[in-house]
Every structure is written in structure tokens, then in C-alpha cells.
Design brief:
By secondary structure, the protein is mostly beta strands. It is 4% helix and 48% strand. The chain has a five-stranded mixed beta sheet, with no helix packed on it. The protein has a four-stranded antiparallel beta sheet with strand order 2-27-26-25.
Length: 307
């Protein structure tokens, strides 16, 4: 990856209150992914609702948190699952990708959970990781399971608007994780975590079988890219897992900034505020949400790289 990146440190916005720390026994997810550890939470999948509340998924304990603009937390929904990410549907309900249960719809007001797609072609998913909503209403989601460089069989699916069965788009990814689309919906960015790379391909590929995929960015260090977010100008934010940092690049992949989270290293995911003025970063090791002003980031960008 071309550098250097102007370096910044994010400020703490809020941290999971101790009253909401999980105190029960480790789940299978914890025992497998963090052997020997006891986690109070593992936060992922940030997104905002229409009222400006920030929502987060707590993967191992099946909890959805709602954070008010003043930083106060509320447990909005809890169920027997492993939610990795969520997105608002525009009708006060949420789409959830769940590692155990598939693609779900959740209504926190009625405490109702509906399975939209629990398997494909009569086979269960390996374990869903993230989702993105296209401007045309299509749902893109990743199915990572335990894939890696030794087993590069993670999958990417697209569920067309109005359809009930998803299309298989890719089946060769070493742990497909975060996924995001360009503002016009024409390009798909994919975090190939175990390859430590961000891939890119056309959403509407002309290829009759598999779309042509290229490496948009090759990272180093840490574990690899995790959550992704794209702003209205096409800038891509990349949370790098187990590195305590986030990269911000422009639509061409040129460096704009690297943002460090003071404290923990498990930078899992990121989101732009609804007005695009602030970038939020989730750090799961300490259960924290950090933030940094976009004006501050762009003011320090190399000349000609902020547009």
C-alpha cells in the first residue's frame, strides 16, 4: 500500500458500561475464537438509525445495543444467536447477519425475530459476517465461517430486492468479512481478512460465471481488514483487526489518514455519522467506541487527496 499516511489518534466517545458486561460462561464462539479468555462483549457492526442512535451487535451473547448521542447505552434486543452486523430497513426493523442463524429481520419494538434466509440450496451457511445495502435495495452479505488461506472457500452472496433466494457471487475468499459499496452502488469492496487485503469488483459483472476481482489494497500487520465503510464522496474506511488502527483512503485507494485507537487493539468495524462529519471506530477488546472529525482528517491530507 502506498504511503505514508498522516497519523491521528481517535478520542473515546463511549465505553460499554460495566453493568452491561457479560458475566456468564464463555460461549462456543468465545472458546473457539478467543481460547482461554472470558469476554465481557465483542462489539461489531455499527450503524445509525433515523434518530441518530448508534447501534452495535454483541457477537457471542446475542445482544443489540443502542447508544444515544450523549453516549448512554441501552440493551435494545437480546436473543439466542451470534449477530455480527445489522442495518436499518427503513421501517424501524433491522437486517441482521447472524453467524449461527443466517440472514434475519429484527423488530426491537415487538421483540420479534424472523429468519429471512437460514440456508442456501438446502445447505446451511458457513457463518455470516457482514452485510451492506445497495442503493437499489439489494442486500450483499459475507459468509466467512472458518475459511482462511489454508481453506479459501468463504463466500459472498447477493439477495436481490424482492427475492427470497440469494445469488452466490464468490466462493474463493480467505475469510470474507466487511463489505461495502461505492456511493453509486457500482463497485463492491470486500475485506478478505486472512489475505490481509481489500478486494474490489463490479456489482453488476458482465462475466457469465464469476466476476473479475482485483486487490484494491494490500495491507500488512495485524490480522487483516475487518469492517468497511464508504462515505458519500467514495472514501473508504478500513478497520484493521488486531492492529488498533483504521485506514482512510480515497476512491482510488490513495492514503488519506491512519487513525489509532488508544487502548485496545481489536478494531473491528467503523461507520460514518449520518451527516458524514464524524468517523466512528469500534474497538472490541475494551468495548469502546472512538470517534474522530472528518474535517480534522482531511485537513491533514496530502494536497489533492481529500476530494
Amino acid at each position: 500500500m502506498i504511503g505514508p499516511f498522516p497519523r491521528h489518534e481517535a478520542e473515546l466517545f463511549t465505553r460499554l458500561p460495566e453493568a452491561l458486561h457479560w458475566t456468564g460462561e464463555p460461549t462456543d464462539w468465545v472458546r473457539t475464537t478467543r481460547p482461554g479468555q472470558r469476554l465481557h462483549s465483542f462489539l461489531e457492526g455499527p450503524c445509525f438509525d433515523a434518530e441518530g442512535h448508534l447501534w452495535l451487535a454483541d457477537v457471542p451473547y446475542g445482544r443489540l445495543f443502542r447508544i444515544a448521542p450523549d453516549g448512554s447505552w441501552q440493551l435494545a434486543f437480546e436473543y439466542d444467536g451470534e449477530p455480527h452486523s445489522l442495518r436499518p430497513r427503513g421501517d424501524a426493523t433491522w437486517l441482521i447477519v447472524d453467524y449461527r442463524h443466517g440472514l434475519l429481520a429484527c423488530d426491537p419494538a415487538t421483540q420479534k425475530l424472523t429468519t429471512l434466509c437460514g440456508r442456501v440450496n438446502t445447505e446451511p451457511f458457513r457463518g455470516l459476517s457482514d452485510l451492506a445495502l445497495a442503493p437499489n435495495g439489494d442486500v450483499w452479505f459475507t459468509d466467512s465461517g472458518r475459511s482462511s488461506l489454508s481453506d479459501p472457500t468463504g463466500r459472498v452472496y447477493r439477495l436481490r430486492q424482492g427475492e427470497t433466494k440469494p445469488d452466490l457471487i464468490l466462493a474463493n475468499v480467505p475469510y470474507p468479512n466487511g463489505i461495502a459499496l461505492s456511493p453509486d452502488g457500482k463497485l463492491v469492496y470486500l475485506a478478505a481478512t486472512r489475505a490481509n487485503a481489500v478486494w474490489r469488483f463490479l456489482a453488476e459483472a458482465p462475466d457469465p460465471a464469476w466476476p473479475m476481482v482485483g486487490t484494491f489494497l494490500q495491507l500488512s500487520g495485524g490480522l487483516g481488514p475487518d469492517g468497511l465503510a464508504v462515505d458519500a464522496s467514495g472514501r473508504l474506511a478500513i478497520a484493521q483487526a488486531q492492529a488498533g488502527r483504521l485506514y482512510l483512503v480515497d476512491a482510488l485507494g490513495d492514503p488519506l489518514a491512519v487513525v489509532h485507537t488508544p487502548g485496545g487493539l481489536w478494531t473491528t468495524s467503523c461507520a460514518f455519522s449520518p451527516d458524514q462529519s464524524t468517523l466512528f471506530i469500534v474497538e472490541a477488546q475494551t468495548g469502546s467506541v472512538f470517534r474522530i472529525s472528518m474535517a480534522r482528517l482531511l485537513a491533514a491530507c496530502p494536497s489533492g487527496s481529500s476530494s
